[in-house]
Amino acid sequence: MKYMNLGIEELHEKLKNKEVTSKELIEESLKLSHEVEDKCNAFVTILDDAKEVEVSDNLLSGIPFGVKDNYSTKGVLSTGSSNTLKDYVPFFDATAYSHLKDAGAIMVNKTAMDEFGMGGTGTTCHTGTVKNPWDNTRLCAGSSAGSAAAVAAGVYPYALGSDTGDSIRKPAAYCGIVGYKPTYGLISRYGLFAFASSLDHCGVLTRSVKDAAIVVDTMKGKDENDMTTWDSSKMHLKEALTGDIKDKKLCYIKELCDIENYENPSDELKKHLENFKEKIELIRKNGVTVEEVSVDRKLLNTIASVYVIISCAEATSNMSNLTGIIFGPRGEGNTWEEQIKDHRTKGFSTLIKRRFVIGSYVLQKENQERYFKNAGRVRRLLVDTWKELYKTYDAVILPVGTGTAKHIDGTLDVLSDSQNLGALEEHLQVGNFGGFPSITIPDGFIDGLPVALNITGNNYDDENVLNIAYAIESMMDYKNQIAKEVK
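Request: output the structure for the sequence above.
Response:
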């Protein structure tokens, strides 16, 4: 049997009963890591020397897991999947990772990602494109592409991700697994390579809602090294999973979910929205109130532009230290200006350089009011719109994206909105604008490939959001999915 196909509680029970050892789990996970690397290109580093630990009463002790390569891991290569840090080995651990290590969890690899998290395709990793384990001709989405591929392929029950726009939740959807981004500040970002600090979230990819709760219960906590963290000591995510949600009220947005709003919709989009509506009816039959609400389409259509402006501006500032002088491979040139220019020109992918150009442009004094400040104002309008919904509803439930994983060939990290699909494809970004807890769970298949729905709730209401997801998950039959074939 493949132990890595099991959930965290099952593995813990087998470890405690001495049916399997931590060493055996590590060996299996490492073997699978090499197999999946050959087929999916999911990793930057595989730690073949990973050591077993003594199994304790902590559910995570002795169990392997993966870490996205933008988490600082002491003594272990941490590249952010960028050539500018291709040889960087940190001298400290990210807080979120150190909490897991202290619990006895065992890192067995660092997962590939879009360069510094600045992409949604998994194609800009310095080690190459990450392939979807359900179909190697398709993307995993990004930026947490390697983590999603590894969990879906059964390398281990969970992996760490980060989410600045949808970088945990969309890869989870494309790979048929669970992706959870908690409330902003629930998990410390200390030691996470900064992309856009007001949008960045640490989180996890798993194969069940309960496993997500277990992992984040361990990762979370107030951290003196991150002033945005808050006291969550009274929040117990796993204990909150009762499955009782008959008194809850959910809503979905008509403008995103009504097929009539799309000109010449594809068959896949029709199937995706039909599947979502079927799941809404299933939820209603289980005693939950789900209502349709309307949001101004013009406001919804701003989501992608607001995200690009704010994230690129913050990234330009955060990445200004990547000069090749302090760390990273030294550029060539006779002056320090020439060395920095050479380092950044050769080290960054085309996509990253484009984002830096946008960020620099919108931050120029003459452009700030028109672009950067206006984006902040519209961000507030979007957050306030969702906050208004939370006065009536426990959560907003929506389909993830426009369908299944996209094909690798010809894919650009720019969405063509010729069919008015932008808001449907990008709405998860509102969860980052407001710092809302947000979780994606698989809800079916289209032509053999997984699709998903998303549940986003109000700030600090993570227990409620996870319990809703847990209950809906139990109404379906997509928990603990392993990709059926790796082509």
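The longest helix spans residues 365-390.
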